[in-house]
Amino acid sequence: MRTKILWIEGRRADSPPFIPGLRRKGYAIETVSTGKAALTRIPALDPDLVVLNAASMRTSGKRICQSIREQDSKLPVVVIASPDHPLNDDGCANVILNLPFTLRKLVNRIIPLLPANDEDLIKVGPIKLDVERNQVRCANKEARLTPRMVGLLKILMKHAGEVVEREDLFRRVWNTEYTVDTRTLDVHISWLRQAIEEDPRNPRFLKTIRGVGYRLDV
Q: How many other C-beta atoms lie within 10 A of the C-beta of residue 138?
């Protein structure tokens, strides 16, 4: 299912045209020109996210943002602000982006606010890996991962309780048959422990099996 974004944009917008770029990336965007129209549309559209381009309205957007919060406290809100009308971080918006910024930055700030698709979420024991967002959560810890860290953890989670040989891990994640020097694997395992372990020096989950490889115990 495509991500639905309700976009509030002033009629005389002179800010960068983000909407076409987001649509090319697959987002379904519906636009309204006032906060009142947004409040009317939210119940029927049930958007995943609201983007308030306050800069296009030449206001801080605080009143509209607060009204959205009063109507739906769980709906993520991104506010695009201008230096002329700054919005203080008082909790009404999940993200405040001050112009100028790029489309890539906007997408990077939107993604963590969106609900994860079931096919992108892998859960084993207390470990939850969001493959799409490169994020892992374990107990009270949450961290961003590099793509190779995601690849390593994904394999270990799918083989939880089993020993995965070092050479096999290296071959599959680094996509190479050269497995003579796998020291970079040890570095990435260390980073994974920093992400999921309460005490990385005494790992509870990600165990080293000397002379063989690694095992994820959950």
A: 19
pTM of the model: 0.57
Taking only the tens place, the pLDDT of each residue in 35-81 is 999 999 999 898 999 999 998 888 888 899 999 999 988 899 999 99
Residue ranges of domains in the chain: 4-113, 118-216
CATH class as words, domain 4-113? alpha beta
Can you give the three-state secondary structure of 110-166, one letter per residue?
HHHHCCCCHHHEEEECCEEEECCCCEEEECCEEEECCHHHHHHHHHHHHCCCCEEEH
- 129-147 residue pLDDT tens: 988 778 898 877 888 899 9
Q: Which CATH class is domain 118-216?
A: mainly alpha
